[in-house]
Amino acid sequence: MRRALLTATAVVSIGGLALPSSAAPPRKPITKTYTASAAPSVAGLALLCAGGLPVNEHREPFMPPAAGTLKVSQTTGVGDWDLVLLDAAGDAVAESANLGPGDESLSFKVKKAGAFTILSCNGLGAPTATVTYTFTFAK
């Protein structure tokens, strides 16, 4: 009986040494590139990204699985587009709205898993824009 107990104790001790003290390796960032498509606004820039016409918007859902940082960049090439990040309630939590043509970018610290929407709004731009997002997990 004593021999079995010593053997079990030794196996448990060795097994404990084989496991690393940290839980899991760092998670790789989540990255996606897509094309946003929307018609240029005919109603004027005042309505853009503030409850404007849906035809002038491209909505891309994003569901971060944990806390981290979301960075979004939008390249339009020609014309004016804006970029807004909406939370699950539809409220703007981050935005980039440069006046006139140019690229847009935003960054937002996500506190926990949830649902967001990346909203690209076409002011007076080309019918498409390239959007890339990267989500980096919190350490």
Report on this structure.
By secondary structure, the chain is mostly beta strands. 12% of the residues lie in helices and 41% in strands. The chain has one helix at 2-18, and strands at residues 30-37, 57-62, 68-75, 81-86, 92-96, 104-110, 116-122, 128-137. Strand 4 and strand 5 form a beta hairpin. It is elongated. Mean pLDDT is 81; it is low at 5-16.
Q: Strand content of the residues, in percent?
A: 35-45%
Helix content: 10-25%
Strand order of the largest sheet: 1-8-3-6
**Mean pLDDT reading:** 81
Helix-strand makeup class: mainly beta
Radius of gyration: 24 Å
What key attributes describe this structure?
mainly beta; 4-stranded antiparallel sheet; 1 helix; elongated
In summary, what is this structure?
The protein has 139 residues and is mainly beta. The chain has one helix at 2-18, and strands spanning 30-37, 57-62, 68-75, 81-86, 92-96, 104-110, 116-122, 128-137. A hairpin with a 5-residue loop joins strand 4 and strand 5.
Topology, pairings included?
Layout lengths: L1 H17 L11 E8 L19 E6 L5 E8 L5 E6 L5 E5 L7 E7 L5 E7 L5 E10 L2
